[in-house]
Structures are given as C-alpha cells and as structure tokens.
Amino acid sequence: MSKIQTKSTRVAFAEALSEVGRSNSKVVTIAADSQSRHGEFVREFPERSFNVGIAEQTMIGVASGFALSGYIPVVTSYANFLAFRAIEQIRVDVATESLNVKMVGTDTGFSSQWLGFTHLALEDMAAISALPNIVIIDPADAVEAFEATKAIFDYDGPVYMRIRGRKEEPILPIKSRKFEIGKAQVLKPGKDILIIACGSSVYDSLQAAEILKDKNIDAMVVNMATIRPIDEKALSDLIPSFTKVITVECHNIRGGLGSTIAEFISERGINTQLLRMGVKERFGMAGSDEMLKQAFSLDGPGIARSAEKFLNEKCGR
Amino acid sequence: MNIDSVKLKSLEKLAEQIRKDSIWMSTRAGTGHLGPALSISDIIAVLYGEIMKYNPKNPSWPDRDRFILSKGHGCLALYSALAQCGYFDRALLKEFCNRLDTMLPGHPERKLPGVEANTGSLGHGIAIGMGMAMAGKLANKDYRVFVITGDGELQEGSNWEAAMAAAHHKLDNLVVIVDRNKLQLGDFTENISQLEPLAKKWDSFGWAVKVIDGHNIKEITDVLSSIPLTRGKPSAIIASTIKSKGLKFAENKVEWHYKVLTEQQYKEIKDELSLEELAYE
After folding, report:
1. DSSP track, A195-209
2. Is B261 helix (H, G, I), strand (E, B) or coil?
3. Does residue B281 lie within any of the structural domains?
4. Quick one: pLDDT at residue A315?
5. B129 touches A: beta carbon within 8 Å
6. A10 and A140 share a domain?
7. End-to-end CA distance of chain A, in Å?
8. Scanning every residue of chain B, which has its alpha carbon at the shortest distance from the alpha carbon of A88?
9. Contact, B41 vs B96, CB < 8 A?
10. Over the stretch B113-167, which tens digit does the pLDDT of each residue have?
11. Rounded CA gap, B78 and A82, in Å?
C-alpha cells in the first residue's frame, strides 16, 4: 500500500452524527459524561443534546424513554461501560422491544491502549450478541465509520456499533465505499486461504496478505463489518472454495466474528478448517495499540505468520 | 383540591374492584405477587380514576400522561385498572398467568394495551420515565410521567443515578410515587438495608417531597392534583402503605410478597369481600 491517509473513527462518527442531526430533527444524543464523542452535534443542537452524568444504566433507560416517545436516541460510552455496566437495561429496556436506540461503544479493541484491561473492550460484542434483535457493526476505518453511522439511522431498530479511539488510523485504499448493513465486501481476491476480518483487523489482514504474497500465498481478504446479521450469502458463496479460513478481530474469539463464522461453517456442514484469531481466554492489558496487536499476534506480520503455519498444518479430519 | 363525595365514592369503588380482581386473578392462576398489588391499589385507582389523562381507544395518543409500574411485580393492580378503564375487555383478566405467552404475565409487558414499559427487573422505571419526561419537554408537550417504585426497589443503585440526573434536568413533569409498605421479599426493608430517612434522601437529591397515607384516597388525590409540588423540581411522593392491604390475615406479613390464596381460603373470604366465583373453565 502506497501513500496512506489517516483519520480517527471517533472523529468520523461525530461528523456523520452532525450530518444526520441536520437532516433528521428526531435524532437526540444522550451522553454519560461522554459528550466529547458527539462532536459538533452538541454545539449545533444543544436542545437535542443531553448528558445524564456518569450513569450508563440511566443513559440507556433515558434513551428508551426517548425512543418510546418517537425520538431516535444515540448513546455513547467506553464500550465496556455500555455493553457491561448497562447490559441489563439494554436487555430489558431496548432489546426486548427492538427500540430504535443507536448504541455506540467507543475505544474498542486495543484502542484504549494504556488505560488497561478495565477499558480495553474485548468482550463487548459477546455481551451484546447474547441478546436478540441488536445489529452489531464493527467498521474497518474512518470512512466506513462515517458511512455506517449514516446507515444505522436509516434502519429502524437497535444497533450496537463499536468504534475506536481518537487515534488516527489508516484509511483503506478501497474504491467502493457504499455501506450496507449486513453486506460483506471482498477487498482482495485470492485462492489459497480466506481471511475474514472486522474493525481495525481489516487493515492488518490486508497487510498480512501483502506479506503472504511474497511467500506465494494468495490470500483473499473479506471485510465483515456487520457481525449481526452476518452476510450468509457471501459466506456460502466464498467459504466452500477454501480448505482453510481465518477470522481476525480485536475481540475475544468467543461471541464475536470468529464464533459467528464457526457456527456458520459447522451448521452448514462446510468441509473447511477454521482458525479464529483474536484474544483467547484472557483480558487485555495496558500497552500501545501497536504493542498489543503485536503481543496478541494480531498485527500484519502476526496474522501472516499464523496464516502460513495454519496453511501448512495437516487438517485433523 | 376538594373532591366531592360522589367522586370519592367512585374512586373507592375502583380501588376495591382492583383488590377484588387482584385476589381473583392470582387465586385462579395459583401464582402472582398479591401483597405488592394490594398495597398500591388505592394509588393506582386515583391515578387512573382521577389524575391521568389518557385515551384507552388510542393508547399511543401522544399527549397522554404516562404511567410506569417500576415495581412490575405489582401488575395485578395495573391489569385490573386498565381493564376497568377500557383498555381491553375484562374477560382478558382470566388470562393472567394462565396461557402460554399470555398478554398478562407475572410482570407487565408492552404488548398489553396501556403498558408503557416492560418492567419486572427493579430499578429501571425512573430512568425510562425520565427519558419520557425529557422527550415531553423537548416536544413542548405538557404530559406528566408517573412512576411507582417499590420501597425495597430503592436499594437498586440505578434509581439514585436517575434521581440525581432527573433533578439536575429540572424534570417537574416527572413524579415518583414510592410504595412505602416497609416490606421486601425477604424481610422488613429496615432489617435488610435501611432506607430511612427516606424523605430526606429524596430531598437531598433535589426532589420536592411529600409523605402521605397511601390508602387515603382523598389525600392521594390532593397531592397528585398539585403536581409539580415545586416548579422546576421532580416530585417524590412517599406513600405510606400496608402490604396486602385489605386482606386482613395477610396484611404486613413478609410471606405475602409472592403468595396467593388457596381455593379454600378464597371460599372462606368470598362472601365477606363479595368476590366473584373463581369459575375455572
């Protein structure tokens, strides 16, 4: 990849939020002392910007009250405090009724960096995906975060979108940036191994594919930005052509992308072997984004190493 | 406000019917939280019989007052009130915990006309009501939001988050009525995790507070007719009540939190309370 532009997904989300706020007067933001994530929306629409204090459970309850009154509330918080602290409110108040609440967990994966395991959100999708009715989106870069933010307001129902921190991230060199909920996108064709990724792992998977190319391994890379509903059509079109499939996510391998693909493969009886890359049976730890990705072998070289080893492994069937 | 004796009589009758229906439904079903329904029957009767504006033919009328039973387990009383007010046919009361996926489960759900929020998990109602109250102000509507919480329920921390924020947002269209029957599932509240001084707690959180007799229809009507108690503040009404009120042998007894009459007990009090036939079919 040549010259790369960068932008933060949090900034992109805030920009899209303002845009949506201008065209839809029903959109309100409810913060739990998290208004910094709402950017210009707060200054442009102070009457539609609310802050309940550091009280995530109340934030969800209040959002439900707004949704039940015909508004479209968006709530934000560090993903762990949204998806865990308020999970019971999300379950009872939002999910059972499929209320039109847009929940945005920020600083996910390794992007809260030095804040340590309390803030590193590596199980948020697992918590949310245990509940019926909620769409789950993990955008790959700032452009996708922007497009996805606009798209979730065109959808009537609860959405959990996980974005990352303030840090500028590479913008993927992709031409078509149309975002559709539930649609996978093949970013790089390939025939030897299939890498399915979400969130910031999409960029790292593309890097891994470059490294693998030098070793004459032709990897296909797919961006699976929507984890639920999973793009079953894309999966049934793509997976049967591969004997080895890898999922990559900045999340625990349970309850996120890897689990979803594992369920799909086994329930469809597809004859392929799966390697789930992510965090296994442990919490995060303090470190820079780069350090952590390296430590968990989730950077480009780490993914490439695992892919090569996996490809050379004899399948145990 | 002075309510005339005719109105007073009709509210007392409504409350009495709520009690009779609650006893009838729970005995038929062999399950239900009877004590917690009987303690709020008078309050519910005043809300639905006098205070709130609503239209049972159009349950989602945007200008209606909202009611949230945060202590969802008290739903027997709510079901009876909604039936009596015309939200649905009284015959539906037979369905209480009596059919798979019933419209009248052990905690209220929005699929039943008139139910504004799914409750049953304690500590949710105030925040949801707060959102509705904020939405009302944003939309320039003058509806009020009434929330009944249990007293034991106030041990859930989420209530106090919401209480703090609601006062901060000056939600004088939000009213919390605490059913202070002094009992929770396991014991008296004060033996488990002390709530007193409860009025001071609400006051210190920035609410306008009034302590009333939760079984005195006139007193309930008077206080609910003067909402907001203070302009710019949410109102907290601590209603002193008796758990299982109206069922003498069960009054103020902890075990009647989640207990119902046997058929034999029902027969014994049937005439005294002029209850309906259980009429199983």
Report:
1. EEE-TTHHHHHHHHH
2. coil
3. no
4. 67
5. yes
6. yes
7. 37
8. B121
9. no
10. 999 999 999 999 999 999 999 999 999 999 999 999 999 999 999 999 999 999 9
11. 32
